[in-house]
Each structure stands twice: as structure tokens, then as C-alpha cells.
């Protein structure tokens, strides 16, 4: 063999050996590189705390600050989410995909949220978003969703099992639309019905609020914290901490001047203790002040009472989020030092215990200030890490790292027949029979099913928007056919069937000759601020005119009130044989008819005291209620059945002076 051939063979052998070695080494190198890039926080077999610690340890200051800021959809793009490393986005009331109410469908919501989520996932660490919505009586931002009775109606049911089911059903529709964080339930104490958010509370009885709130949370998140990671569960929010409903004269975003901090805690902290025990993962701060100090600046209540682990403290391990622009209302800190300007307000809020800042429009400025405050040490690294640790903990617990996008399998749950049936049941159980006079020898409500000629009147009888109230598609809600549903009139026609006559006149004309007149009246839609002391809680001129028209006919009248709170009916109710409080029932108005004309009986009990006058409310005093007994027309827990006649009612007291 020539030297040239030997050299060639040797070279070939060396090449083969080299290739073999390369083929053997490359997989091992790739595996090693993959091993280095795969972090503990991505490993689902690791504990939540191990994952949190690993991720937190890899984060830059910019990434941490991004997690602490929540922007509103109208002022942030998916590109912004990636650029600024944001941790959360919200849609406030009326914040629709493409800014069009016609685009407020489940499909377009899911596509929109997934776009934001894709942006978050494309960042260096791929930390997914929490996307928040006010799902206060169903996924109430979306046309076609199931709208349940507002909480005041659920409080009337006394049925915690039902409320837990509603929490679970709401979570399904929240998740089916791409969102994963519901700003619900309201853990409030509406002591004065002049407050425009009364209907968002379950009751003015703190024990009942605690029971109902805990049930809703368990339904929405699951009975155990491990359940929260399921695809059909949503992060819940106990709001608004603390003192909601105790403000002077029922003022929204008002001050509590008649109670000390400790007295407010004594009254309201047990409700939040129940929520924390039920596993709620986020708490939203109240706009309320106590003795002039805004809750967003109250370190004693946010950090100590809520998050502390000492005697009487709640040991809350989730995170605290500010309310919509609530930080900007801060004027002093917990020691009474004056606070002015956005930078100082942010410093005060975060150091008081706010972990995530809901800054809808000015989120960029918020990031700038947070970075500067961290650089100067005015907000410590320890405090930033605590806030981010809490936020990451909830994200890992919720399963959003594993399932960040909309689950197509949940589409079938949205506005499903099962959810509508549940809502209809809730409506029926929420009705409270307040007056049931004898007509021709028996209580009138016991005889409705046997009547053949039924007259229906009132603006609220055939209007879905009035049944829904506020926080329905838009922030304040609106009358009209805003979403698919069944009106009370449609429900009556359905339940009584074809063999009977149902005549409707909105203004109440033409009632003569009928067996009974069902007059459905009540409030226009409203939400916070706009609903405060609306019309002095009186019936509107339109409703009074309708009642007068029906009264002139001489036909026995049953009034159905569609309202978010007690209305002042002292001067009118003697004209009515029957009176039913239907609250704000939602989309399933047939649930009202199921009780009026069907086989269901009234089971609801008042969740709130009903005053004779709006002026009946007194300032709240320590250890005392703000309504004297003689000023209560219908007390907490009152409610009749069809066969129970109206009992002897209290004599009408003198009207107190305007307070």
C-alpha cells in the first residue's frame, strides 16, 4: 500500500472518529444547555414557594417593578406590555375590545386578552399576565353573558350553596372569555341605603356578609388552594378593604368620622377573616377614609391588620391591589405627615402595604416613579421583593404559567343552559314578599295562579337593562335591550301559558276589568357615585304616575320593585294589596314569574333593614346601629310566604329632620 493510500485511510478513520465523537457530544451539549435554560420556576413538580424564589432571584429591578403595575386596556397595547414588562392589565366597566360595544363578545374578548398574554409570554422570563375585570354579577362586561342577581339579592336567598355555585359559574364565564382575575366579591357593610353601591353588598348584617362572601370565593377559586389552578377557576378579590358602607351619610369614597380604626376593625374585620380563610388571593383597597386617612395610605390596617401574623391579624399571603386611581387620593400618610404629588403618593401607598398599583392611564409615570423611589431607597428592595413575591405566588397558584391562554373547551359553558337555569333559580330565591293583604278572604299572592285576566304595567316590566342595574355591559348600566335575556313580562307570559290573558301597558292605562294588576317599577341603572342618594330613595314621577293610573281602575295591585336597595314607599304602600322586592334580578326575569304565578313559594328574607324615610338614618355610633327601631318599616330577616297575610305593621313615625 502506498504511503498516499495509508495517509488517506488514516485521515478517513480520523474523520469518522471525529464525526462519531461530535454526534455523541452534541446531544449532551444540547441537553446541558437545555438544562441550564430550564429553571426551577418552570418546573411544576417544585413547590410554589420554590418556584417563586427561583423566579424572583432571576428578575431585574425593571422586571419586578413591571409586576407591580396594572394598566387599563384603553391606554396600553400588547407592545407596551412587552416593552415595559407589565404584570397586569384590566378592563374597567365599558372597556371593550376595539372600543366598540358591538365587539363585546366572548370570542373577541378571548382574542384580545390572548394578544396581551402573548406579549407577556414573549418577554425574557415569560411571566404571564393577570387580566382583571369587574365580574360582579356574572361576566357582566360581555353581551350575551349570564347575568345573576346583584349581591343584595343573593343575600336575600340565605343560600350559601347557591352562591357557591354562582361563584363557580361566574369563574367559568370569566375564564371562557380569556380573563383570569375577577374583582369580586364585594365584602361590604351597607349600613345606609343612600350609598350608591348598596346593591353590591350582600347585606347590612356582617355575619351574613361573611358567609356569602366566603361561599362565593370558594365557588370562584375552588374549595382548596390547589383547585385554583384548574382551567375553570378564577382568581377572586375581596373588596374593598375596609369600612365600605360605614361612611358618614352613606357617601361613596367618603370619610368615617364617628368610628376609630379599631372600631371599624371590630365591625368589619371578621368579614375579611372569613374571606381569607376561604382562600381569597387578592384584596382590593377601599377609597374610604377613617378620620381623614385614606385606606390606601393606612399601614396599620393594610400591613399590620391584614398581612400581619400576630394575635387578631389575618396573615393574608396573597397580594393587595389599589382601586382605580385610588392612590392619587392620598393626602397624608399613616403618621399624619402631608403627602402631595404622584411620586409621594406612590411611595406612601407601597410602603403602607399596596402591592400592585392600579394606574389605568398613568402607568408609565408610575413605573418611572417606582424606579426612582427604589434607587433612592425610599421604597426598600425588601418591600419591592415582598410585593412581587406575593404577586408571583398568586400567579403560580392560579396555574397561569401552565395555561396562560384561553381554553377553547370552556366556550360551551358561556351563557350555557345550566348557567341560565342557575340564574333563574337565584332570582326566584331572592324575591322577598313584604306585603300580602287579604283580598276576597285570602292573601292575594296565594291567588295569583288562579287568576285569568292579568294586567301588567310599569317601566321595569319589559326592560332588560333595568333588571340588570349598574356594572352591566357598561360601568353605570343603561335601560333597554342591552343584552339577550328574559324580561319579567316575558316571564309572566311564559309561566301563565296560553289559556290566560296578559295585557301590558307601560303607563298603567286600561287596567279596569282585570283580576289583578302587576305593577313593575323601580330604579334606573346606576353604579358608584352616580347612585349616591339618588332621588332621595323615592319613587320617580314616572312610577308615581303609573301607580295613579292603575289605582284609578280599582283593580287589586301587586307592586314588584326592581331596585338595588330599599326605596321609600311609606306614603304609597297602603294602596297596594301586595308588595314584592325583586332587587336587580339580571337576565332571567322568568324567575320572578316562577314565584308570582308558578309553583315556587317565596323563600327570600330581607338582607337589609328597610327604613320609613331616607332621613331615618343616623350617624353610626360605636356599638349602636344607625336606625332606631321605630324608624324601621321592615326589619332584617323579614319575609312572608304566599299563604301568610301581612302582619300588623308598625305605626308610621314622624319624619326625622334632614341630617
UniProtKB/TrEMBL annotation:
Source superkingdom: Bacteria
All copies of domain Glycoside hydrolase family 3 C-terminal, residue ranges: 431-641
InterPro entries linked: Cellulose_Degrad_GH3 (IPR051915), GH (IPR017853), Glyco_hydro_3_C (IPR002772), Glyco_hydro_3_C_sf (IPR036881), Glyco_hydro_3_N (IPR001764), Glyco_hydro_3_N_sf (IPR036962)
Pfam families: Glyco_hydro_3, Glyco_hydro_3_C
Single GO BP term: glucan catabolic process
Principal EC category: hydrolase
Entry keywords, A to Z: Glycosidase, Hydrolase, Signal
Example GO molecular function: beta-glucosidase activity
Record-linked Gene3D superfamilies: Glycoside hydrolase family 3 C-terminal domain, Glycoside hydrolase, family 3, N-terminal domain
Annotated Glycoside hydrolase family 3 N-terminal domain residues: 60-394
EC numbers, comma separated: 3.2.1.21
Catalytic activity from the UniProt record: Hydrolysis of terminal, non-reducing beta-D-glucosyl residues with release of beta-D-glucose
PANTHER family for this protein: LYSOSOMAL BETA GLUCOSIDASE, PERIPLASMIC BETA-GLUCOSIDASE-RELATED
Record-stated family: Belongs to the glycosyl hydrolase 3 family.
Name this polypeptide is given: beta-glucosidase
Organism: Paenibacillus curdlanolyticus YK9
Amino acid at each position: 500500500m502506498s504511503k498516499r493510500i495509508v495517509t488517506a485511510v488514516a485521515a478517513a478513520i480520523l474523520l469518522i472518529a471525529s464525526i462519531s465523537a461530535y454526534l455523541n457530544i452534541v446531544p449532551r451539549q444540547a441537553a446541558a444547555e437545555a438544562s441550564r435554560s430550564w429553571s426551577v420556576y418552570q418546573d411544576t413538580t417544585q413547590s410554589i414557594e420554590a418556584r417563586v424564589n427561583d423566579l424572583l432571584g432571576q428578575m431585574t429591578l425593571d422586571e419586578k417593578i413591571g409586576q407591580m403595575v396594572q394598566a387599563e386596556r384603553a391606554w396600553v397595547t400588547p407592545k407596551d406590555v412587552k416593552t415595559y414588562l407589565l404584570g397586569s392589565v384590566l378592563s374597567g366597566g365599558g372597556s371593550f375590545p376595539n372600543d366598540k360595544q358591538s365587539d363585546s363578545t366572548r370570542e373577541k374578548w378571548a382574542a384580545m386578552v390572548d394578544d396581551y398574554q402573548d406579549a407577556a409570554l414573549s418577554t425574557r422570563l415569560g411571566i404571564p399576565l393577570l387580566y382583571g375585570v369587574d365580574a360582579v354579577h356574572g361576566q357582566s362586561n360581555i353581551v350575551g353573558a349570564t347575568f345573576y342577581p346583584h349581591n343584595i339579592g343573593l343575600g336575600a336567598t340565605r343560600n350559601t350553596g347557591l352562591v357557591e355555585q354562582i361563584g363557580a359559574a361566574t369563574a367559568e364565564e370569566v375564564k371562557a372569555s380569556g380573563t383570569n382575575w375577577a374583582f369580586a366579591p364585594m365584602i361590604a357593610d351597607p349600613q345606609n341605603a343612600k350609598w350608591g353601591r348598596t346593591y353590591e353588598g350582600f347585606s347590612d348584617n356582617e355575619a351574613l356578609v361573611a358567609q356569602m362572601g366566603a361561599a362565593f370565593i370558594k365557588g370562584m377559586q375552588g374549595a382548596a388552594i390547589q383547585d385554583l389552578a384548574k382551567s375553570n377557576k378564577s382568581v377572586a378579590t375581596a373588596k374593598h378593604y375596609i369600612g365600605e358602607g360605614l361612611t358618614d351619610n352613606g357617601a361613596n369614597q367618603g370619610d368615617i368620622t364617628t368610628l376609630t380604626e379599631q372600631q371599624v376593625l371590630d365591625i368589619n374585620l371578621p368579614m375579611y377573616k372569613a374571606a381569607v380563610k376561604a382562600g381569597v388571593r387578592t384584596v382590593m383597597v377601599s377609597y374610604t377614609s377613617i378620620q381623614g386617612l385614606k385606606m390606601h395610605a393606612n399601614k396599620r390596617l393594610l400591613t399590620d391588620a391584614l398581612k400581619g401574623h400576630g394575635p387578631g391579624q389575618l396573615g393574608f399571603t396573597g397580594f393587595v391591589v389599589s382601586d382605580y386611581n385610588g392612590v392619587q387620593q392620598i393626602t397624608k400618610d399613616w403618621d399624619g405627615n402631608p403627602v402631595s404629588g404622584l411620586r409621594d403618593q406612590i411611595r406612601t401607598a407601597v410602603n403602607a402595604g399596596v402591592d400592585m398599583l392600579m394606574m389605568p392611564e398613568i402607568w408609565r409615570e408610575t413605573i418611572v416613579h417606582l424606579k426612582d423611589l427604589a434607587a433612592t431607597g425610599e421604597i426598600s428592595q425588601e418591600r419591592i421583593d415582598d410585593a412581587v413575591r406575593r404577586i408571583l405566588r398568586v400567579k403560580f397558584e392560579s396555574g397561569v404559567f401552565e395555561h396562560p391562554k384561553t381554553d377553547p373547551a370552556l366556550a360551551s359553558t358561556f351563557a350555557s343552559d345550566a348557567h341560565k337555569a342557575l340564574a333563574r333559580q337565584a332570582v326566584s330565591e331572592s324575591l322577598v314578599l313584604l306585603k300580602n293583604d287579604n283580598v276576597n278572604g285570602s292573601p292575594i299572592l296565594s291567588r295569583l295562579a288562579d287568576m285569568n285576566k292579568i294586567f301588567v304595567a310599569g317601566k321595569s316590566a319589559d326592560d332588560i337593562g333595568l333588571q340588570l342595574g349598574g356594572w352591566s355591559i357598561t360601568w353605570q348600566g343603561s335601560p333597554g335591550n342591552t343584552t339577550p335575556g328574559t324580561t319579567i313580562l316575558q316571564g309572566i307570559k311564559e309561566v301563565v301559558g296560553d289559556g290566560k290573558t296578559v295585557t301590558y301597558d307601560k303607563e298603567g292605562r286600561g287596567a279596569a276589568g282585570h283580576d289583578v294588576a302587576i305593577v313593575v317599577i323601580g330604579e334606573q341603572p346606576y353604579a358608584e357615585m352616580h347612585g349616591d342618594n339618588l332621588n332621595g330613595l323615592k319613587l320617580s314621577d314616572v312610577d308615581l304616575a303609573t301607580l295613579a293610573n292603575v289605582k284609578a281602575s280599582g283593580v287589586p295591585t301587586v307592586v314588584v320593585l326592581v331596585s338595588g336597595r330599599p326605596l321609600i314607599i311609606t306614603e304609597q304602600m297602603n294602596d297596594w294589596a301586595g308588595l314584592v322586592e325583586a332587587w336587580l334580578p339580571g337576565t332571567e326575569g322568568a324567575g320572578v314569574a316562577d314565584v308570582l304565578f308558578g309553583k315556587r313559594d317565596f323563600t327570600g328574607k330581607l338582607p337589609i333593614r328597610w327604613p320609613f324615610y331616607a332621613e331615618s338614618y343616623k350617624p353610626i355610633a360605636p356599638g349602636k346601629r344607625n336606625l332606631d327601631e321605630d324608624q324601621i318599616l321592615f326589619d332584617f330577616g323579614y319575609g312572608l310566604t304566599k299563604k301568610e297575610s301581612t302582619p300588623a305593621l308598625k305605626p308610621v313615625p314622624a319624619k326625622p329632620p334632614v341630617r
